[in-house]
Amino acid sequence: MKRFVYHPVSVGSLVPSSKGLSGLITSSPKLSSANVIVELGSGTGVFTEQIMQRVKKDTLVFAFEIDSLLAKMTQDRCPHVVVINDTALNLIGYLEKYYVKSVDVIISSLPFAGFDNTSQNMLLETIFNALSEGGEFLTFTYLYNTFLPGGRRFKEIINKKFLNFTISKPERSSFPPSVVYDCIKHDRDKKTEQQKKK
Length: 198
Ligand SMILES: C[S@@+](CC[C@H](N)C(=O)[O-])C[C@H]1O[C@@H](n2cnc3c(N)ncnc32)[C@H](O)[C@@H]1O
Description:
By secondary structure, this protein is of the alpha/beta class.
């Protein structure tokens, strides 16, 4: 809670994510077959713990957390995860460092709705480029954010980038209630984007 008081935009939440929400965002069947998984904004490590319960023994799991104290909390909670105390914007550089070509699943807690247009676009471009063909990107947002300008802009950017994009029913066990955005990357998404630019 103290971290939220000092950094409300980047932390984005007063309390750790609920069990219901962590169950929903980590329920993808792809988790159990994935070779590489990335979590963005791991916070206290609630989702990280759930992810680790669903993966194969040899799955490489990275967790990015910009706040050093929270990064340490994730690492203490999940010793087998490669925790990176840096911004998610540097994801591609770290993948290269670890000789990882692409990521099968990206799970995000980043408070996208509070980010400006440039940050939203740059982060989504990074995520899109990191994913393998057929890779999955899951992120949650508070239901009220979907009505606010930052949240609506974020949804529009996702919609343009990922043709295969679904939204869950509201998860009411979490406070405030949240929805999970579930996006699958297809190469045709990229082609459509390039065609639009021409
Ligand atoms: C909503 S909170 C995390 C919730 C987490 N699931 C939990 O239960 O603790 C969002 C997290 O994203 C982190 N964050 C914000 N911007 C970031 C960035 N650019 N790169 C990495 N982490 C970031 C914040 O420090 C914060 O811990």
